[in-house]
Design brief:
Blueprint: E1 15-17, H1 20-41, H2 48-65, E2 69-72, E3 76-81, E4 84-89, E5 93-99, E6 101-106, E7 111-113, H3 121-126, H4 129-148, E8 161-164, H5 166-185
Antiparallel strand pairs: 1-2, 2-3, 3-4, 4-8, 5-6, 6-7
């Protein structure tokens, strides 16, 4: 499917929407920066401080490219941006829109977006193909959730759950900095 996983999935399955080109660009750039950091930290160059700074770019690219996504189940939708996840029940969603950028408008007027699904010049030229695929599935899931909850009125406040993915960040830091530290010490 490219942008999602588990089409036609049940209530417990999380469907994840990422932009493949956006993801690949950040991964390839991260690998390139990490290679540079390893060379800079190597005994032949011996500059560990700049190598650790360069590796910070790798962490940022990972968080920006891999982590930016929309995720949904039959009952909730989440927007993930730079390790911060905002989750709301479909009952608190007004509409899903695609006007350049893919956005989820909440009943209090706020919008959930994703860095990966923002507007871009390349998207304008290609017709936002990956945006449209994610939009169609998110809109379809929203419509099904709305039809299933006809007796569940909006209560005047959107139930948001905002979390910070500190465990994923710590894992990424360990994966990047432990080998770099070993190379710098040698």
């Amino acid at each position: 499917m490219g942008t999602g996983a588990g089409a036609g999935a049940g209530a417990g399955t999380v469907r994840v929407f990422r932009r493949p080109a956006y993801w690949w660009f950040s991964v390839l750039a991260g690998v390139a920066f990490y290679g540079i950091a390893l060379v800079v930290a190597s005994p032949s160059v011996g500059e560990p401080a700049p190598a650790f700074v360069i590796s910070g770019v790798v962490i940022f690219l990972w968080a920006l490219g891999w982590d930016s996504s929309f995720r949904c189940t039959d009952s909730h939708v989440s927007s993930v941006n730079l390790l911060v996840t905002t989750t709301v029940p479909w009952a608190d969603v007004q509409k899903v829109t695609l006007d350049g950028a893919l956005a989820i408008t909440l009943k209090d007027g706020e919008e959930l977006g994703s860095v990966a699904f923002g507007g871009s010049l390349l998207g304008e030229m290609t017709g936002y193909r990956t945006h449209r695929r994610a939009f169609e599935e998110l809109r379809s899931t929203h419509r099904k959730a709305r039809a299933a909850r006809r007796g569940d009125p909006y209560r005047g406040t959107v139930r948001r759950k905002v979390t910070f993915a500190w465990r994923r960040l710590l894992c990424a830091i360990a994966v990047v900095y432990v080998p770099l530290t070993v190379v710098a010490v040698l």
